[in-house]
Structure formats: C-alpha cells, structure tokens
Amino acid sequence: MSKKHRTMAMAAGGALLLVGGALTAQAASSSGSGAAAAMPARPVSLSKPATFTGRAFDTCTAPTLAQMKAWKTASPYGGAAVYIGGKNRGCAQPQLTASWVKSVSAVGWKLIPLYVGAQPPCKSGSNPEKMTAATAASLGATDGADAGAKASGLGMRPGSPVYLDMEGFDIANTSCKNTVLTYTRAWNKALHAKGYRTGFYGFASSSAAAVAAVSPGTDMPDALWYAAYDDTASTTTGYPFGTKWSGHRRGHQYAINKKETYGGVTLTVDRNAWDAPVAVVAK
Questions:
Q1: What share of the chain is helix, strand, coil (3-state, %, to 5)?
Q2: 45: which DSSP letter?
C-alpha cells in the first residue's frame, strides 16, 4: 500500500510484527484439491498466466535501477510491486518508465503492477478520488480502462495482472460495501476487455473479506493480495478464505514499513509472500 495508506493502517491499530527468514515451502502449495468450485472465474480468453512464487516487496516509490540491481543480487526478494497509476497513488514515480520496467525485468525481477483507484465512500480521511453509489460503475469502468492503458504504456503486455488497491473500510456498512463491489466489478470488466488479468489488494478483515464473500462469477478478481500482519510468510498458513483463489493466485502482505539493507542499499519496504500472477514484460 502507499506510504499515506500505511500511515492510516497503523493509526487504525494494526499490529506490526518483525518478520525474518525465507518464505515457507507452503507458499508454493496453494493449488489445493477441490478448489475449482470455489475459485472466482478467470477471463477464459487469456492463456496461462506468468506466475512467481517466493518473496516480494512493495515500496511507495519505485527504486532506481542501480538499487534494484543491488537488491536482486543480495536480497531474498524476487518480486517487486510497483504503483502504476490511480488518482490516489501517494508517491511520485520518477523511475517508473517503460525503460525501467524492461531493465529491471531483464535482471530477473518479477513485477507486480498496483493501481490505487477510487476509495470507499465510508472510508475515513480525504482522497483525491472517492466513489459514491451513483458514480461507482462509471468510475470503475474509467479507472479500469486507465489501469490497462498505464500497464500497456509501461510495456506490460495483455495477460499481465493489475492489482486494485482498496484500503480498509467498514464492511458492516452494507451500502458502502455494495458500492465498492459495484466499482470493483466495473474495474475488472474494463481490464478484462483490454486483455489484462485483475487482482485485488485489500485487508483480510475488511476490503478483501468483502470481495471474498461474493459468490464466484464473472467480473470478480482473478487473484487476491491480502494484508494480514501475522508474522507468517505464507499464502496458505492462516489463509482466511478457504479454497478461494487457489492455484497460484494469492499474495500475502505480512509486515509493513520494514527498513532493510542489501548490497549497501537501504529501503523501507512492505514484505509479501507471493504465489500469484506477475507482469508479462515486452522484451
């Protein structure tokens, strides 16, 4: 999540735990049997996705190419999330160009595109773009189309996922929840129309739970990236949504705002266990 959103999450009282060590072997085993009936539908026109299983980080501003090269050599991470767009994106991205994407991919990084779209109407705090019940469908369609255009402009080909960043909100507020679901469906549909896969980033206790409660069907996320700060670098241990999003379609953000140094480069990152689609980058 963005730097601004990290601050909000900590203010809301989420416990942050120091995490160390490598990703557990369980992170690669999220394709458990009996999942077909419970998994959200995939866009049938797309070929088998490019996936990555391992540790990934996200940070507000994309690091420089030199920093990424240093971390690729020395860090335990193999995936990196980048904020490709959205009116609520909290940081400038001077490094994030098609050339940067191509270069970091060439040295082995697997990229996870993230889009900070309109936020829930009942969410506290101010955001440049908030949805309402009246605007959710149109905003979702506009933002979904923009997410596809942003990904394409960065050299991320159709077939790549783009993950929608939906911050926490009161899911007991039925009107607010339904508005978020309307927006999410429209966003997903617009991206699918452009040939992109869809992902959803949200908190396990709120925004992700709202999406997970919906019966599988069209226009729902193809992959789920859930935030649960439980000191567990796994996409299976403690996973709260049963068999949904099995089959290499889960990411787990398990710790945030951790300062780490590798190869002489210090970055403040969020830590993720990853077993899900990543960008397909033009050569």
A1: 25, 25, 50
A2: T
Cα–Cα nearest to 236, from 19, 57, 13, 35 = 35
By the 8 A CB rule, do 246 and 33 touch?
A: no
| 127-150 pLDDT per residue, tens | 889 999 999 999 999 999 999 999
Please report the beta strands in 47-104, taking only residues with DSSP state E, as ranges in sequence order.
51-58, 79-85
Buried b (16+ CB within 10 A) or exposed e, 186-213: bbbbbbbeeebbbbbbbbbebbbbbbbe
- Residue 179 contacts by C-beta under 8 Å, 6 or more apart in sequence? 120, 121, 131, 132, 133, 136
Q: Where are the alpha helices (DSSP H) in 84-236?
A: 98-106, 136-153, 174-193, 207-212
Please give the model's pTM, rounded to 2 decimal places: 0.85
Question: What's the pLDDT score for residue 48?
Answer: 77
